[in-house]
Amino acid sequence: MSKPLSGKRAPVDEIHWPSLIAAVASITSVGIAIGLGLPLLSIIMEKRGISPTLIGLNSAMAGLASMAAAPLTTKLAHRHGVAPTMLLAIVCSAASALGFFYITNFWLWFPLRIVFHGAITVLFVLSEFWINVTAPPNKRGFVLGIYGTVLSLGFASGPLLFSILGSEGILPFAVGAGVILLAAIPIYIARNESPVIDEKPGRHFMRYVFLVPTATAAVFIFGAVESGGLSLFPIFATRAGFTESQAALLLTVMGVGNFIFQIPLGMLSDMARDRRTILSALTVIGLIGALFLPMLIESWFLMAVVLLFWGGCVSGLYTVGLSHLGSRLQGSDLAAANAAFVFSYAVGTVAGPQAIGAAMDVTGNNGFAWAIAAFFGLYVVLSIVRIVLNPKRP
C-alpha cells in the first residue's frame, strides 16, 4: 500500500499518474454534471410552466451553494480524509441528481440544488488540492493545463449529452448520476495516495481569499467573464445583426479557444519566473479584445478570430491562477486556499451576469463589451499594484 501524501509535500520530480487520473476523473464528472444538469433542469422547469424569474432564482442556488460549501470543504477533509470526503460527495451528488427526477415539487428543488452543487463544489476543491499537491513544481502548469483542458471538455460534453438524451424520462438523470459515480473508481483505487490535511488551516477562511489575491482575483474574473459571456453574448450578437446560428458558432469558437490554449499556457507558466506577469498579460489581451468587440460587428470572421484568442486568455486565467496558487502555498493552507479559489470563482459566476446585464440595460448593447472590459481593467490595475509592491515575490 502506498502511504498517503502529506499536504506538506516533499519535492516531486515526475507526474504521479494515479493521483492525476483520480483528480481528472473527479473534475470530468464535475464538468459533465454541470454542463448536462443546468440546461436539463431549466428546460424541465420551463415545460412545467415555471416563470423565468423563479427558474433564475432556482438556478442561482448553484452559486450560493458553492459559496457556502467551499469554506466547509477543508474542515471535512481534515476530519475525514480527502479521498473519503470526495467519495461521500460523489454519492451525495449522484443521489441528488436522481432526486430531481423523482421529486416533482418545485420548491423541493431548492434544497436539492444546494445538496447537488454543494457536493460538486467539494469535488471541485479537493480535486484541485490533490492535483496541486502531487504536481511536480517544474511541471505544475503543464499538469494543471491537462486538468483545465479536461474540465473544459466536461463542460462541453454536458450540453452535447443533453442534445442527444433530451429531457424526457429518467435516462438523462441516470446518465448524469452514472457519470458522477464512475469518478469514484479511480478515486477509490488511488485513495491511499490522496494527500493528508494533517492540521487545521492557520487563518480564517476569508483571509485566504486575500492571501494570494493575484490568483483569487484571476479566477473571479474568469468566473464573471465566462458565465456572463456565455449567458449574454448571444443577446449581444443577435442585437448586433448576427443570426442565432452565427452567434452560436461564435460561442463555439470561443469554446475552442478555451480548450486549445490551456496546456500551452500552462507550459508557458512553468517557464516563467513570475506567473503574475502572465496573468497580467492575459488580462491586458482580454481587455483589448473586449474593447474591440463593438468594432467587429460588421465581420463574423474577424469576430471569430478575436473570440478564439479571447477565449484562450479567459481560460488561461484559471489555469495559470491555479498554478500560481500551488507555487505559493502547501499543506492545509493550500487546501484552504483552493477552497477560497473556488469560492472566488462562484462569486464571479454570480456577479458577472448581473453586472454585464445591468450594463447592457443602462448603456445599450455595447454595455456587454464595456462591462467585460471593466472586469479585465480592474484586474490589470490590481496586478500592476501587486507587482510594484511585491516585485520579488513569485
Largest sheet: 2 strands, parallel
**Fraction of helical residues:** over 70%
Query: From the coordinates shown, what is the CATH architecture of the largest domain?
Result: Up-down Bundle
Give the domain tally.
2
User: Would you state the CATH class of the largest domain?
Assistant: Mainly Alpha
What is the subunit organization of this protein? single chain
Query: Could you give me the name of the CATH homologous superfamily of the largest domain?
Result: MFS general substrate transporter like domains
Number of extended strands? 2
**Overall 3D geometry?**
globular
Number of helices: 15
What's the CATH topology label of the largest domain? Growth Hormone, Chain: A
Radius of gyration computed on alpha carbons: 20 Å
Poorly predicted segments = none
Transmembrane segments: 20-44, 82-103, 109-130, 142-164, 170-189, 210-235, 247-265, 277-294, 300-322, 334-356, 368-389
Protein name: Transporter, MFS superfamily
Subcellular location: Cell membrane
Domain Major facilitator superfamily (MFS) profile: 19-394
Features:
mainly alpha; Growth Hormone, Chain: A; 2 domains
Task: Describe what you observe in this structure.
The chain is built from 15 helices and 2 strands. The chain has 394 residues and is mostly helical. It has 2 domains: 15-197, Growth Hormone, Chain: A (Up-down Bundle); 204-393, MFS general substrate transporter like domains (Growth Hormone, Chain: A), CATH 1.20.1250.20. The chain has a two-stranded parallel sheet with strand order 1-2. The longest helix has 33 residues, at 331-363. The radius of gyration is 20 Å and the shape is globular.
